[in-house]
Amino acid sequence: MRVTSTGLGLLLLGLEMLTVQAATEPHIDPFARHTTRVADHVWLVFNSLTSTQPPFEGNVVVFEQSGVLVVVDAGGCPRSGDNLVGQIRTISSKPVRYLIYTHYHGDHNLGAGAFRRAWPGVTIISTTHTRDSMTGAPMRYIATYDRSNAEMVEHAHKRLQQADLSPSLRRGWQHLADIGDEFVAGYKNLRAYPADMTFDGALMIPDSITPLEVRFLGLANTDGDAIVWAPEQRVVATGDIVVNPVPYAAASFPGEWIKVLAALQALEYKTLVPGHGPVLRDGKYVDKLSAALTEVKRQVSDLVDSRKSLDQVRKDVNLDGLRDAFDDGDDWNRARFGDFFLDPIVGNAYKEVKGEPIVQGSDAG
User: Fold this and answer.
1) Could you report the per-residue pLDDT of 253-275, keeping only the tens digit for each?
2) CA-CA distance, 331 to 215, in Å (whole number)?
3) What does the DSSP 8-state code read for residue 198?
4) Do both 162 and 266 map to the same domain?
5) Residue 295's beta-bridge partner residues?
């Protein structure tokens, strides 16, 4: 091909414009955090990516007391923890006195090292069961978490080769491919920081402006979920007992979870901060989640009564109505609802009905 001087000039100009465009396009930092006030003396520090987009970083709630801060959850990796510390310091110069884990899943606590460095006097609190999980087999996955994430990124690149992907599925896989290197690097050299103080029923953190009640309401998303209730502000932080807009299930307890959701509703909160996703200002989503669990329980119980195996139960349940209720018309959310909720919850409901143990594992969510 013969290139004239004019053509060469246009080519170089085009390359220069592409370079400028690439340099000015916003970079997506998958671990970036933002802060918003949700009530008097209460802030949410959140990842702007949705709960169905990796890296699936949990919400963090900051409660301001008279002389100290109390923080709920700590992010899912060292980089996330560092970003959280930076955001919290914009809220107040008061020290973080207590860091409370809602449960053992790493996306809510593997950033705690940054809190230890920033506030050496911090006391970490969790339920006894959460501490047991964080010092036992359920946390062993963190040694290979970066490799697991590398496999997810490789899978995303393969999916993008498919010509028949819907636009929302293509956007979802493209996002994972785009953040791939940072996604993998962020989860290297992880370390768990188990609680210094544990409780089994309730623990009070008194204060004149923002008294707090840390409660275990029962088996739900894990065997040791804690909620943090601020009765003066009527704000509750639930961890993954509630995740919006697509719930996570993992090694959960469907029947008991329904009871815990009823106990949450009985608080008559004004604001519910879920473990992932936007803040809720009423009980409609919690009712929807409870109805979903009830329907799963009903169908699975009927099939187990017919002496069907778990494989047969998985084939025979008809939960398309639940997919429709939670996917918001989005194929990516529909697929994640299957992965994050339906697949594990059917197995957990089967075990619950059969009286088989639901063992806490390495599912991070």
Assistant:
1) 999 999 999 999 999 999 999 99
2) 36
3) E
4) no
5) none
